[in-house]
Structure to design on (199 residues):
């Protein structure tokens, strides 16, 4: 199984229109027929005109096949894409592999979270995972979910913490090359917010 994290930076002032377009067209057209939507967030700080969504696929091959089928969908091509593309300034995506057997409960029921991209020296990812796994449940050093980057910045682990970690103890003692943080808020589009789509 792989996950794809897509980060879109929108044109200034386009966030509301873009979210409405997702609810009115994108989700009804896509459903979960072209990959399963796991989460849909908006940025809370920094570039607040960002949307971030997380998709699940059985394999990279399935992702390629489903993305090609979506691109050929007449409604996607003719109704959705012409309206959405002018609202998007930049698109980034990262292919992630979920860390196996990661059993960490949500740290709270907040609709806010932090997604941290932690880049380590070669060989550092297994050590980081082992140390995070050893942390007790609910520890600020243990994310609710964790992935490794398969396509994108290698030697990077991505952790999802529920709530905001702007204060608190450092995340483990592993030496990092860089840490990039996205502070996010769950949208009504997220399956975790019970947004139901019927195809």
């Amino acid at each position: 199984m792989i996950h794809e994290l897509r980060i879109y930076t929108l044109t200034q002032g386009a966030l509301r229109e873009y979210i409405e377009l997702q609810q009115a067209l994108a989700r009804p057209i896509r459903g979960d027929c072209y990959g399963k939507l796991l989460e849909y967030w908006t940025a809370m700080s920094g570039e607040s005109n960002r949307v971030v969504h997380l998709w699940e696929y059985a394999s990279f091959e399935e992702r390629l096949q489903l993305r090609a089928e979506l691109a050929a969908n007449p409604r996607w091509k003719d109704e959705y894409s012409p309206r959405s593309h002018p609202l998007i300034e930049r698109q980034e995506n990262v292919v992630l592999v979920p860390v196996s057997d990661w059993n960490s409960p949500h740290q709270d029921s907040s609709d806010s979270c932090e997604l941290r991209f932690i880049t380590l020296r070669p060989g550092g990812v297994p050590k980081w995972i082992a140390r995070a796994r050893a942390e007790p449940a609910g520890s600020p050093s243990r994310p609710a979910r964790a992935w490794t980057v398969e396509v994108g910045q290698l030697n990077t682990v991505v952790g999802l913490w529920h709530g905001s970690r702007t204060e608190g103890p450092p995340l483990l003692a592993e030496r990092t090359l860089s840490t990039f943080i996205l502070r996010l808020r769950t949208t009504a589009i997220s399956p975790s917010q019970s947004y139901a789509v019927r195809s």
